[in-house]
Write a structure and sequence with these properties.
- There is one protein chain.
- The strands form two sheets. Strands 2-1-3-4-5-6-7-8 form an eight-stranded mixed sheet.
- It is α+β, with helices and mostly antiparallel strands.
- It folds into two domains: 132 residues, Fructose-1,6-Bisphosphatase, Chain A, domain 1 (2-Layer Sandwich); 110 residues, D-Maltodextrin-Binding Protein, domain 2 (3-Layer(aba) Sandwich).
- The structure holds adenosine-2'-monophosphate and calcium ion.
């Protein structure tokens, strides 16, 4: 386990929570304005602008307390620093939901030490929910402990997933789903990877898988799911990675893994023509 003490991790979590909640407040205030802004900027530009400014605000918050720490963010990229903690930030996860005035979007902040995430906070402002975890300390929603659902047979599993933005990737994801859908209870497509993993952590689904995520999408929420008792990983024993992430109670993880691996769930469709 990490070299950080429980006290260190609690301190890092407190900063992650403060920054996620402040970022969430600002983003939530901005959401209602989308669509009624001047005609020069498209709604997509407005969301991109909000992503940027919320990430900037989060970087400032973190650096006010820990000036030397590097930050990896979806918008601002990998910013170097001498500090021992690397912060992994997704200012708005679920941007399409955000754009359409839907509630399923999150601000996600993880603190990583020596390559291992030791604290994570995911704020879901539209619902007023805050998910938190520190490594080895369990997972919480609004301060109450949460647990992932116990394993069920695959045919009884409610499985959350998401689809990429590119057409070739989506074609392959539809192919995979053609085999998966008849074998499970049902599919949910929420639109935010961070929320999907947090809901798995509180038993609102049985499993989750998705291709094409980046570390900021899963950083905080994967720790929350893991601390809630879920196994979170890639194919063939790999850690979560952009090719594929799977999360579920361990026995169901194995079953879903063995279904997905031969289907090429970690690949894209060949180019047409
Ligand atoms: P985003 O809202 O920050 O873009 C939707 O299935 C989930 O996957 C969201 O968490 C979304 O993050 C993420 N996602 C899907 N495709 C992506 C891509 N091509 N680049 C970045 N994030 C992606
Ligand atoms: Ca994201």
């Amino acid at each position: 386990m990490s070299t950080t003490s429980a006290q260190d991790r609690a301190g890092l979590l407190a900063l992650a929570v403060e920054a996620a909640q402040e970022g969430g407040r600002v983003a939530a205030e901005g959401q209602s304005g989308i669509g009624v802004l001047d005609t020069k900027s498209s709604p997509t530009d407005v969301v991109t602008e909000m992503d940027r400014s919320v990430e900037e605000l989060i970087r400032k918050r973190i650096h006010a307390v820990r000036p030397g720490d590097p930050v990896l963010g979806e918008e601002g990229g990998d910013e170097a620093g001498e500090g021992a903690v690397r912060w992994i930030v997704d200012p708005i996860d679920g941007t399409v939901n955000y754009l359409y005035g839907r509630g399923e979007w999150a601000v996600s902040i993880a603190a990583e030490v020596g390559g291992e995430v030791v604290a994570g906070a995911v704020a879901v402002p539209a619902r007023g929910d805050l998910y938190t975890a520190v490594l080895g300390g369990g997972a919480f929603c609004n301060g109450e402990p949460v647990r992932a659902a116990a394993a069920v047979p695959l045919e009884l599993a409610l499985v959350a997933t998401g689809f990429g933005y590119g057409s070739q990737r989506r074609a392959q994801q539809a192919e995979v789903l053609r085999t998966v859908l008849p074998r499970i209870r049902d599919i949910r497509r929420g639109g935010s990877a961070a929320v999907d993993l947090c809901e798995l952590a509180q038993g609102r689904s049985n499993a989750y898988y998705e291709r094409g995520l980046n570390p900021w999408d899963w950083g905080a929420a994967a720790l929350i799911a893991q601390e809630a008792g879920a196994r979170v990983g890639g194919l063939h024993g790999a850690p979560p990675n952009p090719d594929l992430i799977i999360a579920a109670a361990p026995e169901l993880f194995a079953e879903l893994h063995d279904l997905l691996a031969p289907l090429g769930a970690d690949t894209d469709a060949p180019a047409a023509g």
